[in-house]
Amino acid sequence: MSAPLPLLAPDDLAASARFRVLDASWIYPKLNEAGIDVRQRYAEAHLPGALFLDLAALSLPYPNAPDVPALRPPHPDTLRRLLAAEGIGPATPLVVTDFDGGTTTAPFARLALIDAGFADVLLLDGGNAGWAAAGLALTAERPRFVTGAASTPTDDGRFVSTATTWQAIACGAATVVDARAMASNDVILPARFAEVEIPTDVVLRPGEVVVEAAEGQRFRSPAELAAIARTRGIARNRPSIITCHFGLGAAAVATALEIAGHPAPAVDAASILGWATEPSRPS
């Protein structure tokens, strides 16, 4: 059964030879109590032909938070160069997946790829778990890693700077959404960020835009997501900027709004980490 854009159903991916697949699985180290090695997990069980996009290796630490192992979008040139070495160019159709239903790091990776100029990038509906639940096989054959030196990101596409967020707040130019997984910062970030708050217009948590299916998480239906957006006052005809702790949850919520028909919601990649040191924000 077909899935709504920007999603691709597992059966549709299996039936098509036009897509290259990138596995962007990652676990925030502070929450990885089981000590899972995502690279090893990928090597042992991945979609046939999938490449592992090593977001952690490609992410530079935030200057004000070198102790926070956050993801940052790789520089577009870095992504283009590394993927070109795998025969992937800007016009190559791509599908991004992860081990958590395609709802956690895959949306973040997809936006980074779009900002790097890749024109046709979809998410696997249900991620690796959805693929397996559809009766399709994962494999340990031919693991390949897309990795390299970290590079300074840019903020001029779907990912925007904290300065852009503050300007939008000051001018009332966009609906600013708090998409932190939880209301406080202290579980995710060091204690010095505990009191940092972005003055957002509305709260929409990543957990509200997904459902727990038997095979794992997946995004809610377009109708459900549109209803949630309406209830929260997030209008389709008004720009929106999604914030969180450091961009990951924001990318998931931005994707959910896109599924609901909202045109290209922006993501503040640095979010709380950037807001803490943004010179133009009010103290």
CATH fold group of the largest domain: Oxidized Rhodanese, domain 1
Q: How do the strands line up in the largest sheet? A: 1-5-4-2-3-6
Distance between the termini: 51 Å
Q: How much is the radius of gyration in Å?
A: 18 Å
Corresponding CATH superfamily of the largest domain: Rhodanese-like domain
Query: Into how many domains do the coordinates divide?
Result: 2
Q: Averaged pLDDT, please?
A: 93
Anisotropy-based shape:
globular
Walk me through this protein's architecture:
- The protein is an alpha/beta fold and 283 residues long.
- The protein has 9 helices and 13 strands.
- The chain has helices at residues 10-14, 38-44, 76-84, 105-115, 127-133, 162-171, 222-232, 248-259, 271-275, and strands at 7-8, 20-23, 51-53, 94-97, 121-124, 144-146, 159-160, 175-178, 202-203, 210-213, 216-219, 240-243, 266-268.
- It has a 6-stranded parallel sheet, sandwiched between helices. It has a 5-stranded parallel sheet with strand order 7-13-12-8-9. A two-stranded antiparallel ribbon has the order 10-11.
- It is globular and about 50 Å long.
